[in-house]
Amino acid sequence: MISQLEIVSRLVLAAALGSVIGIERERLSWAAGLRTHMLVCVGSALVMIVSAFGFADVQGMPNVSLDPSRVAAQVVSGIGFLGAGSILLRGEMVRGLTTAASVWVVAGVGLAVGGGMYTAAIAATVIVLLILAGLKPLERRYFTARRRCGVRLMAARGTVKLSTLERLGMGEGRIVRFIVDHDDAKPDVDQIQIAFSRMSDHEFGAIRQRLQQLSGVRDLHDLAP
């Protein structure tokens, strides 16, 4: 059995490492922020301590067989419900997957601290922080330049169809949503919403220009991303 001071030290270290990752998430105003990451890290560290040392009094008794990893193993699967709560569906975009992953990793950091693996816990924290904060500029430069976009247009009834757009090369996996609405007050007009897969501003501008040149298109506006 480890000393009481060692137990407190491990819990404090878990809180500190969890706060480092939590601050980065809090900075971006995500639901799982500073306090959530600290609580997850401290809680998982406590579970690991209890799993490893909490049953020391009965381990030497006859007919008693304990696996100290069983309690800690439940953290890995059980923390999933908390991560799922941070995942949001906004329109057609899923947000919060990175935060959910960070919560799951923080649980692992807490388990490592609770098990006395300080080097592994600190190294994991540094690596996670580099992934969350250090790779963000690269991600914005090379990946988020391609964004989901769409248009809303008014066209003469029946002039703009999905087959029409496919013939112009706008299909091929680019169109992810094509909705046609009819207004009884305007029986000769189709109100069409078209959402495209991720593409650069240059690609979207070229497609937008081709849509405006279609026969029968009367009005065209961009959809909010």
Helix-strand sequence: HHHHEEHHHEHEEHE
**DSSP summary: helix tally:** 9
The helix content, as a percent range, equals: 40-55%
Average the pLDDT over all residues and give the rounded result.
80
Number of strands: 6
Radius of gyration: 27 Å
Q: Largest beta sheet: what is the strand line-up?
A: 4-5-3-6
Distance between the termini: 56 Å
Number of domains: 2
| Beta-strand residue fraction | 15-25%
Q: Give unreliable regions as ranges.
A: none
Shape: elongated
Structural class given helices, strands, pairing?
A: alpha+beta
Largest sheet properties: 4 strands, antiparallel
Keywords:
225 residues, alpha+beta, Alpha-Beta Plaits, 4-stranded antiparallel beta sheet, two-stranded antiparallel sheet, 9 helices, 6 strands
Report on the structure:
Helices cover 53% and strands 20% of the residues. The chain has 225 residues and is of the alpha+beta class. It has two domains: 4-142, no CATH class; 147-222, Alpha-Beta Plaits. The strands form two sheets. The protein has a four-stranded antiparallel beta sheet, covered by helices on one side. Strands 1-2 form a two-stranded antiparallel sheet. α1 packs antiparallel against α2, α1 (4-27) runs antiparallel to α5 (97-114) and α5 (97-114) packs antiparallel against α6. The termini are far apart.
Protein topology:
Elements: H1 4-27, H2 34-53, H3 69-78, H4 80-85, E1 88-90, E2 93-95, H5 97-114, H6 118-134, H7 136-142, E3 147-156, H8 162-167, E4 175-183, E5 186-199, H9 201-212, E6 217-222
Antiparallel strand pairs: 1-2, 3-5, 3-6, 4-5
Summarize the structure.
This protein is of the alpha+beta class and 225 residues long.
